[in-house]
Amino acid sequence: MGRSDDTLGRRVDDPLPWSDEQVESLAPSASMMSAARQLATPTRWRSTGADEGGVWGTVQGSGREPYETVVDHTEVVTRCTCPSRRLPCKHALALLLLFARGQIATGAPSRRTRAWLDRRRADAQPSVDDTTTGDNSSGEGSDDATGDPDNASPPDLPPRDDWDRARNERVESMSGALIELDRWLEDRLRTGLADPSLADYATWDQLAARLVDGRAGSLANRVRRLAGRVGIDADWQQQMLAELGVLHLLAQAGQRLGELPGPLADAVATTIGWQVRTADVLAGVPETDHWFVAGRSDAREDRLEVRRYWLYGTKSQRWALILSFAAYQQSLEHTFEVGDTVHADLHRYPGGALRALVGRRHDGANGLPGSGTEEAPGERAVFGGVAEAVAGVGALLASQPWLDRVPMLLRATVAQDRTRRMLTDSDGSVVLNVPPTAGRGVGAWTSLIAVSAGATVDIAAEWTPEGVVPLAVHLPHRSHDLGRRADASFVA
Amino acid sequence: MTGSAITPNDGDLGGRWETLVTVALLGTDRRDPPAGATVIDELVDDTQRARPAARLLAQAAAVTAARRAGARPGAPEAPFVPPPPDDRPACPSAAADRWRHVVAVWPVLEDEWLAAVIAGGWRIEPVLVPALLLRHQRDMARLALVDVAAGPLARWLVDVDDELGDALGARLERITPGSTLALPALPIPDALARWREQDLASVAGNLLAGLRSGQLAASHRTVLVNLVARLTPDVDGLRHLADALSRLDPLDPAVSLATALADLAATRASMLDELAPATAVTPAR
Predict the structure, then answer these.
(1) How many domains does chain A have?
(2) Do A463 and B6 touch (CB under 8 A)?
């Protein structure tokens, strides 16, 4: 950035490359920016410093230990030890504000900070604009809502030998947990699904805790979700057996990662809960496309709201999933509007995952210096018939049978018989999973009927083992987002 | 049924799956999992599992994966018969969004919004119809307005969607054709009501003078809201009023009230503008 080699203790007095407005443009929400402004006071920070690539400091938060915050201000990548899932966090924003105002002296970073910045520079790609550090890596089905921020934010890179040892220990720990999972599954089927112990949450919770200990957090989430299905409807044993089978498949595959082809091993590992550094994901080859924002849905998973945006590459015809998480009073990602098309680089998680991170936006939507300004041509995805959509779902499930949500686009009309609600065309039908609202407002089913009014319409939906969930209706002049919304009293 | 969202491509797998579920319910302590010479047996055979529960798990995994990946659509179903056609264009999307803002922030404008839809030759955008029906299901006068503004879609929707309830259908049946479109009167003191006869530039001047002098304050908010909601429906005049009110000195004690009234005036102006009589229309569903 053209900075001089100032010695320790001197203020950075080059023309400043950042302004308050630029920092504000990075903030995930107005409330977070407001919190950052309150933190942007030099006296609240310790051990601050900046050089030509980074700015760093520590600040006392609500935790016992101060949070360590580092920002690579050339690539706009942040790292903070705070547990925030909204990124960049308020500490990183505050640090950038201080930097922008010239209130950070130049200096030399600590060894840990230096290691992280060096790693960033080594991996840096010209277009990467990510601001994320908390790693919520998940399987394709976006299982990861582990809520374990300590795991989520990888530590500074230790020496290579230490890194290998830590990795081996982690693999061993995960394998041990998977062996226990398989034993547990066998015990359940030995005594049978009618065993009353299945209705006891402790039966499941102990297993989930063991999986978390074994760094298999995504499987722990699946187990917790499964516990909630016991006795939920007449078919629960069928769904239970199917899911126990999938867990067995993952437990077996996870114990044989070394024997699996590379991408498959990666996919299995991330589905189990193997954490992947955000920077590593962003260092991967980007997929540049005009991404049609086909649908959105929010789901409550444990103590988090999880928002899923399904993006469809109009050129590649490939799906991608953008996830965001919000704990109580945090806000969810809302930069996408269902029905829009965004020109952007997406970086997929390992194993050809559906889940991806957004890199550079070529439509300038992230407001970063250097972002392209090319206009998206408004391309839209091609909606096929019911049979084509079902075949697409089948193809994805054949390659990754553990997926519990698969996106689909279809052109269909609404139908129902005495017991089922469906989407249909002249070749076939699919059954919908749209539970009655029981008088609580207007549900997706009612909206779907009203918007389609008996006509054939373009629909984005999500296959789940329990049925197809309509997410959006795309009319020629307007898209209607029908996906479930997070509880407004929970998220900010 | 596994993968019941889509009809599974059962083949031989359907029967095998039912057997697996039965064994899983009873437990392998009581019954052994099935064995045979099917593709599934071949697939899991190489695992050479000795324990029955492990064999059952392997089969469940294989059958689940096969049934989900190989699922096929169900038979075509008869779709809903569409409602009778309504030649009126759907109101613009901006007007639909405005309705959401109106009911959330300025419900005093909703009657005028409905009246403007009807008077402008529009029909309610379909996605709003269920919400409007439910919102006014116990208010026959407004339900009548919704019935007219939504057109045939309203009754069709109530007929085909059991979630909207039979009671709503019965109320719609009781609506008398040709319901009045007159806006209900709102309580406005005579001193203020006289301003309704003035042009909106004069009203803006009066309002600002009253706010600055303290004669009009937060305690008058309700009647002032009613006044702005019933001033002459002049889009330009309302925008001028909004502009004038928003320029009150930020340090004036009445600035909060003035800002609110400015938003009300601006909202009303936009609402009337968006619902101006449809002339050249974009075909809409």
Answers:
(1) 4
(2) yes
